Known about the structure:
Chain A is of the alpha/beta class. Helix content of chain A is about 30%, strand content about 25%. Chain A has five helices and six strands. Chain A is globular and about 50 Å long. The interface of A and B includes residues 42 and 187 of A.
Amino acid sequence: MKIVFASTNRGKLREAAEIFKDFEIVPINTFSAWKSPDENGSTFLQNAVIKAEAAAKSAPDSIVLADDSGLVIPALDGAPGIFSARFSKEGTDAANREKLLAELSGKSDRSAYFVCAAVLIFPDKTVFAAEGRCYGRIIESCRGDNGFGYDPLFVPEGYGRTLAELSEDEKNSISHRGRAFRKLLTFKGSSI
Amino acid sequence: MKIVFASTNRGKLREAAEIFKDFEIVPINTFSAWKSPDENGSTFLQNAVIKAEAAAKSAPDSIVLADDSGLVIPALDGAPGIFSARFSKEGTDAANREKLLAELSGKSDRSAYFVCAAVLIFPDKTVFAAEGRCYGRIIESCRGDNGFGYDPLFVPEGYGRTLAELSEDEKNSISHRGRAFRKLLTFKGSSI
Lengths: 192, 192
């Protein structure tokens, strides 16, 4: 069975394919009707629902999957939060990480956690959603080439390596997105 | 077990209590932290999620329930839709109905349907949502004293009476909200 994923991010698509093993993960941009929506929600869940509903509109007969994820830093009052992907003016991974390091400079509390809200919408408009978190801390400079976004700066609790230094399998087993996706898989009462 | 319902509408509270029989339905305004959120979503589901998340913030240890409902009229391009409760300037039931009758005046297609998006959020942030619909048509003038909102103008398919002329039990058995709530009850894998 197919799951249409409202993302074109290769890293996320790989992560989804790895976890939803029994399904074929289809990126939403293979549907010509797809138009990326305005993510103007005020929470991860709201933005994930906005994306999932936009995907469901383009692919009404499919199960659709969407997620919204971000990094929450208590010492920065929760920033970058839902603005994680557009934290810096440039909005690139490198510029976002640079801004993060600048804002954390001199702060003693470098604890942080990733949050992922993941949403499945079925053709009959029933919806399952779940949240996954990954707790850790932000280090002083980037390490590792795997992963994307803030991964090279984030050392998960109980680890010495950054998320970008972990193998894909290791990352999926502890990542916020992996946890949220696996919770979706445990839901019953649907065709999934 | 308790379910905190993000509504203070007596009609909705009664409808919820009737369907979630095995639970105690607690109105959200018994929580002092409750602040009614801006319902600025662009779909019923998005507004229901906004309300449910606001309720979950006020009552983080409870299962919370929220819904967003409205009347969709194809001949009016889907209006009043998510603006059903604030269709007229005054925003009262009577003024909304009056505006609806004025806009439908002279239209031959008076078919309409109610939509309800209902959302449950659990303390672990898993979410179930479902949609219910009730198809029918808009008559020329109000009939019946039960129900609220557009009920006195709406005759469900297969019925001769308006929703406001049906008993509470009859209405719950076919209403959009009743259908959505009952779908939530069928979901498995949670403590509900």
